[in-house]
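ok new one. same drill as before - structure tokens go in, u give me an amino acid for every spot. 150 of them this time. try not to just spam alanines like last time pls lmao
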């Protein structure tokens, strides 16, 4: 009986990572949800530099889909992570312990110098959200932007 329980426990543990990855698509985000590439989107280009974003303030309508084109024109790696200030502050603490962490989330990306990436995002909730660079010290030096969803 113990052998059967042990075998079942091992099977469950081996399936957990696969099931967790499968559920990644159903994850919820505070600032909305990943966009649908088959739907129209307004493009907003954001330039990342030491230590700022241009533009740093954006207004969108609730339900609007935005294609963020992110360009790192700086000399260091930079990030764009869209969330609430509270979530980004908590994530920044984790980044202090793991500064080279790579993001595998649809609401964030890390870019090396001279690189470009896109994030397609649908803003489903009204409020003010932020995008920030969570590489240690970058947010503290002012690398924060805001999205107001009306």
């Amino acid at each position: 009986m113990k052998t059967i329980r042990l075998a079942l426990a091992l099977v469950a543990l081996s399936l957990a990572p696969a099931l967790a990855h499968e559920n990644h698509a159903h994850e919820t985000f505070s600032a909305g949800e990943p966009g649908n590439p088959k739907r129209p989107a307004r493009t907003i280009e954001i330039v990342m530099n030491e230590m700022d974003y241009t533009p740093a303030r954006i207004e969108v309508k609730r339900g609007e889909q935005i294609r963020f084109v992110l360009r790192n024109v700086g000399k260091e790696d930079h990030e764009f992570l869209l969330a609430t200030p509270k979530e980004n502050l908590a994530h920044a603490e984790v980044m202090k312990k793991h500064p080279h962490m790579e993001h595998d989330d649809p609401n964030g990306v890390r870019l090396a110098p001279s690189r470009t990436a896109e994030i397609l995002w649908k803003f489903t909730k009204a409020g003010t959200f932020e995008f920030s660079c969570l590489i240690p010290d970058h947010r503290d030096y002012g690398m924060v932007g805001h999205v107001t969803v009306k």
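Residues 29-149 form a domain with the Immunoglobulin-like fold (CATH 2.60.40.420). and btw The longest strand covers residues 42-49.
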